[in-house]
Amino acid sequence: MSILDAHREALSLIAQRSRTRSLITRTGHDFASNDYLGLANAPELRGAVADALERGVAVGAGGSRLLRGNDPEHEALEAEAASFFHTEAALYVSTGFAANSAIFSALPAGRDLIVYDALIHASAHEGMRLGRATAIAARHNDVDSFADAIRDWRTAGGRGRAWIAVESLYSMDGDMAPLNALAALAEREEAFLIVDEAHATGVFGPDGRGLAADFDGRENVVTLRTCGKALGCEGALVCCPRILAETLINKARGFIYSTAPSPLSAAAVRASLRLLRDQPERRTRLRDLIAFAGTRLPTTGSQIVPVIIGEDARTMEVAAQLQARGFDVRGIRPPTVPTGTSRLRVSLTLNVGETTITALADAINELII
Description:
globular, Aspartate Aminotransferase, domain 2, alpha/beta, three-stranded antiparallel sheet
């Protein structure tokens, strides 16, 4: 017997269900990343990092932001981000996962209710698990389901504050939340609205400010803008009223006890925000690609195109065949998506063009028909 046998057995069971995960080096045409605007390797961001190094900006923060890790680059980014997104405050956090964990664990109180969309990201679930508020799932994109959950909670004696939690653009389905109706519900219920804009930031809204841009600045709205997707960098910005940012600084354990993000990353994100404002043609080109892809693949109206196959093993087999043909497409299986909905997640970015999209669509149609 080995002390590792339990882990071997657990991995064997995962393999039997065709759900083994492994690291694959990126190769081939990019249909897997979230680098929607092609900024991850943009010369402007390289230049911003080089300029920061020349100015003496450190590579590492050296500690948490509450110790000595709070760099002027972090504060400059937060000031620019708050202005860009029209919010009172912005807090720069190491990752989107860490940001969601902080939001859901530290902001709702123990007497409160979180009503979250059934397809919300795993990081939100982690935050809710760490927090003390009651959490209830609402049917995906069903505003009535959110309203019913709040009503039933109050009828049963709930006396705290309700928090409505959604993604503006869902990362695996590519569909968009009914934000206007949800914002109206939040107003009626005197509830908070948390909107994860991870996949909409940079792509939609004025200057790429996302699908929730119209609601930024309201005292009951918290938005999360990740920096590692369309912005091409890393980290995340929690945009919210200043009092909520201060609450996170004082109560979010993941923020308090984590080493701060690299100051170089903060400098790169600042440059990326300027590119969103100064190069709107990137969003135009991406919208054109989305429209073009919609004539050849199942359309969602966004840059995320799910091709549902259903069965886990078959999904991974098709993904491997596409990769062998030079298309970097990944298969997505439960628990990331509901059982029976394993899929290819086709991500449209400015790293490919119409000819490559056509070739991919032809290959998919050949393999799954």
